[in-house]
Specification:
Layout lengths: L1 H17 L8 H19 L5 E4 L2 E3 L3 H16 L15 H5 L3 H12 L20 H12 L6 H11 L15 H23 L5
Antiparallel strand pairs: 1-2
Helix pairs in contact: 1-2, 3-6, 3-8, 6-8, 7-8
Length: 205
């Protein structure tokens, strides 16, 4: 990027010499050149987080995030929360969505609901951020699923047995005191509640 920027500065300087010293006093000339340089630099920086999935199509977010969205929606439905089903109309009825596994539902619907033809396509169901953290969302989901376990240590022990290599973050990387553990569990519970609230409104995460 530094080399590219240097090139543009060189171009800017060269144009000043070519068109004469009198242009130094012409601010409109510099504004024009600056706009051109900015345009090309921005064009070079344009990126996309879309993921090439299959059959030449892209999905805007990681597969696992759609899985977590589906699972949170299922929890909200099972608990009888008020859900904006108009937003999820294309997903199907609650019976059609949740009478099977996520994988089965995904295979049947992913191309129609989430696929785009290019990495800069417009997704029909955008998430609230491109920087969602799947690991943190997974922990929040699992903590919420085990909300009947009141004690923080019980939840941690249960999840670390169930996911011995995938739940390192839940311990707070060295949390040993009960107060600290309970504070960590409470944070994930609050995160799960926030996600559930947004999911009911058609948002994730």
């Amino acid at each position: 990027m530094i080399k590219k920027f240097s090139f543009y500065i060189f171009l800017f300087s060269s144009l000043s010499v070519v068109y004469g010293f009198r242009l130094i006093k012409d601010s409109s000339f510099y504004r024009g050149v600056f706009c051109v340089i900015t345009f090309f630099m921005a064009k070079k920086k344009k990126t996309s987080n879309f993921i090439r999935y299959k059959e030449g199509l892209w999905i805007p977010y990681r597969y696992v995030l759609y899985n977590y969205w589906w699972q949170f929606l299922k929890s909200a439905h099972q608990e009888g929360r008020k859900i904006d089903w108009k937003y999820y109309k294309e997903w199907g009825t609650p019976e059609e969505i949740f009478s099977t596994t996520f994988r089965t539902w995904w295979v049947k619907n992913w191309e129609r609901l989430f696929a785009v033809k290019s990495r800069y396509g417009v997704d029909k169901f955008p998430m609230t951020t491109k920087q969602a953290k799947p690991d943190a969302i997974k922990v929040a989901l699992e903590v919420y699923k085990n909300k009947d376990l009141k004690d923080g240590w019980d939840i941690i022990i249960h999840l670390q047995k169930k996911y011995p290599t995938n739940m390192m973050s839940i311990s707070g990387q060295g949390a040993t005191e009960t107060k600290e553990v309970n504070r960590t569990i409470k944070r994930y519970r609050n995160q799960a509640e926030t996600i559930l609230k947004y999911v009911c409104e058609g948002k994730f995460p």
